[in-house]
Amino acid sequence: MQKIVIDPVTRVEGHLRVEVTIDGGEVKEARSAGTLYRGFEEFLVGRQPIDAQRITQRVCGVCPTAHATASALALDQAFGCLDKLPENGRLLRNLILGANYLQSHILHFYHLAALDYVDVAQAADYDGSDPDLQSLRTFIARGTLAPFVPRYEGDYRLTKQQNTLLAGHYVEALRMRRLAHEMLCVFGGKMPHNVGIIPGGATEPPTVSKMEQVVMQLKRISEFIENVYIPDILAVAGAYPDHFALGKGYGKLLAYGVFELETPAPRAADRKRLFPPGLTDVALKYQPLDQEKISEDVKFSRYADSVAGKPLSALTKNVPDKEGAYSWLKAPRYDGGPREVGPLARMAVGYVAGSEEIRKEVDGLLSAAGLKPADLFGVLGRHACRALESRILARRMTEWALALDPKAPHRYDYESPETGTGAGLVDGPRGALGHWIDVKDGKIANYQLVVPTTWNASPRDANDQPGAIERALTGTRIKDASNPFEVVRIVRSFDPCLACAVHVMDAHKNEIGKYRVA
């Protein structure tokens, strides 16, 4: 038996420690651990309910817009205005969140994951006229490759021409991300931590000039997705066909759904969304979502055992030295079992739920690559689903921008109640995100967050069931224990965000000490 510890895993958001035990070149056991404690669920208690919508965005500077949306939905329900959202309010929320989605997906592939497959250093001797590649060549000539390192070396299969092309796209993707941020600010005010999404709708009324601005920005981003992002995904898929099978986990997928297509219904499972809520698995059978089956386990988490159970069933209480615990992440479970969340889950659930739009995109990819639906349940399937989702979303966002009515209301004037409860279930770019609030005497009595990476990177539970990433790593063949690129490729395909996952601001002394190149 040999143990590999990667602490921290680089090119993910936050501090993630991954430990795998290998025997005969195969991973026999994996442990995923969040190594930081933060107190959001605790310091929200006693505040005004409306504060939650601002404070929870500070969970993460990469994912704040999803938290703004989930918190707004929870407050909508607690304030009794969930079914009173104006049409403009719904569309504006979709556009603000959608802009963050597009930025996040482009960020993940080009600036976090692609460097596992693209050898940027091959652009060092570029002698052409492309200004981006010339700039990159000059950057490399400094003699320091950061941020392209640290990295595990080897297994670069793209041709020199492909490597050079994708290296140039790395630079172009930076501009697309900036453009997506600017688009979010048109109606969201700023990024990160927008001020546009609020309970009852949105703060900024639409105008013709702002609508035109968003449509033009979407046109440029759509062209990038169509002509650069998707072809690059297919190029990587062509060079790494075995990575469709790499990193397959439980094959049990969960989505809360996202992007309202009509005024939100009281129950999350009844809401009509572009990407619908529900569950599926490798058998591709659809199962409706029942939010009452969502729970959290803390057997191997650094929290008091009383925290276990349904959200809002107990207040968060940390126990730094809890015996047997190895992570600051809780372990969310659905009907007692682990689930994978994220773009793969959204596309798969939409596919089996009968979305013609999603089925057309997925079937087109499968036909072009000669694959079956079950082939998408691994590393490259996760990457491909992000790209396809981006194309669907950019197209729909254009429709939403054009559907805005400058003469119609954009928010509902709510009243903050003395008592109330609410649940805001939505999908962020990285997967299923839930906010729960309990209001008593006009103040927050309890607030709980269950975030995407808490699902994916969770530790084991009381039934010794590994989390989704732990399961996806188990059984993986490692060619070289001193250069375990397979491990980080699997982990990064989930696009972890540990800042969100350890929401529950102070660092705690723990096991973070030795660092390894990742």
Description:
- With 518 residues, the chain is of the alpha+beta class.
- It has a single domain, classed as Cytochrome-c3 Hydrogenase, chain B (Orthogonal Bundle), CATH 1.10.645.
- It is 38% helix and 14% strand.
- The protein has 14 helices and 14 strands.
- It has a three-stranded antiparallel sheet. A three-stranded antiparallel sheet has the order 12-13-14. Strands 4-5 form a two-stranded antiparallel ribbon.
- Strand 4 and strand 5 form a beta hairpin.
- Helix 4 runs antiparallel to helix 6, helix 6 runs antiparallel to helix 7 and helix 8 packs across helix 9.
- The radius of gyration is 22 Å and the shape is globular.
- The two termini are 21 Å apart.
> What is the N-to-C order of secondary-structure elements (H for helix, E for strand)?
EEEHHHHHHEEHEEEEEEHHHEEEHHHH
Uncertain stretches: 505-518
What's the rounded overall pLDDT mean?
93
**Quantity of strands, as a count:** 14
What name is given to the CATH topology?
Answer: Cytochrome-c3 Hydrogenase, chain B
**Total helical elements:** 14
CATH class: Mainly Alpha
The CATH superfamily name is Cytochrome-c3 Hydrogenase, chain B
Largest sheet: 3 strands, antiparallel
Shape: globular
Radius of gyration: 22 Å
Cα end-to-end separation: 21 Å
- Number of individual domains: 1
Strand order of the largest sheet: 1-2-3
Helix fraction? 25-40%
